[in-house]
Amino acid sequence: MPPAENLINAPEFTVSELSSALKRTVEDRFGHVRVRGEISGFRGPHSSGHCYFALKDENAKIEAVIWKFAHARMRFKPQEGLEVIATGKLTTYPNSSKYQIVIETLEPAGVGALMALMEERKKKLAAEGLFDAGRKQLLPFLPEVIGVVTSPTGAVIRDILHRLEDRFPRRVLVWPVKVQGDGSAEQVAGAIRGFNALSVGGRIPRPDLLIVARGGGSLEDLWSFNEEIVVRAAAESMIPLISAVGHETDITLIDFAADKRAPTPTAAAEMAVPVRSELTAEVATLARRVMVCWQRGQEGRRNELRAAVRALPAASDLLAIPTQRLDAAAAGLPRSLRANTHAHFRRFAAAGSRLTLRVLHGQVAQARHHLTISGERLSHCARALVRHRRERFDGLAVRFKASKLANAQAQRQIIARDRERALRLAERARRALLTTLQRLEARVTHSGQLLGALSYRGVLARGFALVRDAQGHAVRAASGVAPGARLDLEFSDGRVAATADGERTAVPASPQETKPPETKPRETQSAAREAKPALKRVAKPVDQGSLF
Q: Residue 307's pLDDT is what?
């Protein structure tokens, strides 16, 4: 380590400048990194929406922060004690002199973490009652329309359609979705809610049964069907739903919320519809049984009729008394007809004697008078109704005119207020833009001044020279130069090569050595100028040096 008197020409940094330099060094050196560790000290989002915690392992700990906008986009939220893989940018926090990672994405580390998260989410949703057996619906025996939520390009939809064609062909509506990756959970939940939003009897028929299907895969591949948004959509579905995600050994949370779980997509198709050939055979068997029962019933009723016929008396015995009554009624019929005719004739004659021409004229005059009175009353009512309607319409016209004027005045006031508000916002935006430009200009000016102050070329421009040995190391004392050594002198306008030919002579101390450090660069400048005659100068090309 060089003595303190040899570092007198080293540049000085303020604390802010040193913190900024360290910040740039850390960010440029590392940039975006992926860090695996356990979440520690997480107490939920701050009141501002940001999250502050730490990532640790067995030997170290690093502070971490998630900004509000990044936390809102994250599908996987941080939880205390969970091992995760964080991706973000390494930076420093000057106020407390510590480094930290600004996390942009977060994912669980390994299957164990996913299983723990799945169990925790399962307990939470079960506590809300989403998995209760009382919520589950019965599947329809023979649905007319079946809705399938799956990928349209996979083998799952082909297996389902093939199985339905073999058992009982039905109309199938496919809602294409992503079944893996970012955004897949939102698409599956949107498809379930979209099928439920279809109206009965609309242009697109509403399914009688839903099948959510996906092929097998790892826990990470099937994780979209463990998301809360998918489980809640399945639990809220008013259409009976069959979950057919993965193989028989794969368990997802949608299986608990669905009305029925199928071990495979093919099994889901088998649950959805019966076998048509079996139904046909069963119907034929039932038809034969109905025919046999009908024939047996007819035979029994025929036997009962025969027995009843044998127990009944003869027809002549039953009709003897009614025949006598008929003969008696036929004998008295002519006399009764003549008496009835005479009675009707007498009533007709009495009515004709009362019906004279004078009576008819009186009835016609009375009817005409009644008609006249009714016509006058109708005309009076019509005039009164027209007058009432005209007065009502005049009142409505006056009210409409007043409302139109009031509405126009209110709209003018709203437009005036909006115009004033727009002018105020425009003035505020102009002032904010000017203020921002002034701040940016001041920062650029300050950065240029800081760059000029930190550059060692400013020192060379004041007449100093930088001496390097043959290996390019800076020579800070004459004791470090051997006779005949090759030296490299850098001035403000270029470099020269030199050879140390003379002997080293001690420079007498002067009172100026007790002056402040600001005057010592001039003594070094004088010493460099006095040593120039003893050096051989060889021109070298100008090269950009290094501050450090």
A: 87
Q: What is the pLDDT of residue 509?
A: 52
- Asked whether the predicted pLDDT for residue 512 surpasses 60, the reply is no
Given phi > 0 = left and psi -120 to 50 = alpha, else beta, which region is 81? left
Tell me: the pLDDT tens digits for 94-140? Answer: 777 788 889 998 887 765 667 777 888 889 999 999 999 888 999 99
Distance between CA atoms of residues 204 and 187, nearest Å = 19
On whether the CB atoms of residues 38 and 83 are closer than 8 A, the answer is: yes
Q: How confident is the model at residue 411 (pLDDT cuts 50, 70, 90)?
A: very high
Between 527 and 492, name the one with better pLDDT.
Answer: 492
Can you list the positions of beta strands (E) in 8-130? 32-40, 51-56, 61-66, 83-93, 98-108
CB atoms inside a 10 Å sphere around CB 212: 31
Residue 542 makes CB contacts below 8 A (sequence gap 6+) with 493, 494, 495
195 φψ region: left (φ > 0), alpha (ψ -120 to 50), beta (else): alpha
Distance CA 224, CA 247 (A): 16
Q: Is the pLDDT of residue 526 over 60?
A: no
Tell me the backbone φ, ψ of residue 248, rounded to 5 degrees: -65, -30
Give the list of residues 6+ apart from residue 204 with CB closer than 8 angstroms, or none.
173, 198
Summarize pLDDT for 136-151 with one digit per residue, the tens.
999 999 999 999 999 9
Interior CA angle at 199 toward 198 and 204, to 5°?
65
Instruction: Look at residue 113 in the predicted model and tell me its pLDDT.
Output: 67
> ∠ at Cα 177 (120, 127), nearest 5°?
20
Question: Bigger pLDDT: 456 or 341?
Answer: 341
Strand, coil or helix: 97: coil
3-state secondary structure at position 85: strand
% pLDDT > 90, the chain: 40
Tell me the pairing of strands 61-66 and 98-108.
parallel
What letter does residue 170 receive in the DSSP assignment? Answer: -
- Round to the nearest angstrom and report the end-to-end CA distance of the chain: 15
Q: At what angle do helices 265-272 and 155-167 cross, to 10 degrees?
A: 30
| Dist. CA 286–CA 278, nearest whole Å | 12
Whole-angstrom Cα distance, residue 136 to residue 242?
11
CA proximity to 180, closest of 323, 75, 337, 332: 75
| b/e sequence 146-168, b meaning 16+ C-beta within 10 Å | bbbbbbeeeebbebbbebbeebb
174 touches 150 (CB < 8 A): yes
More confident residue, 373 or 318: 373
| Best CA proximity match to 523, nearest among 443, 479, 464, 474 | 464
Residues in contact with 130: Cβ distance below 8 Å, sequence separation at least 6, in sequence order: 231, 232, 235, 256, 257
Which amino acid is residue 215, in one-letter code?
G
**pLDDT (tens digit per residue) in 167-184:** 999 999 999 999 988 888
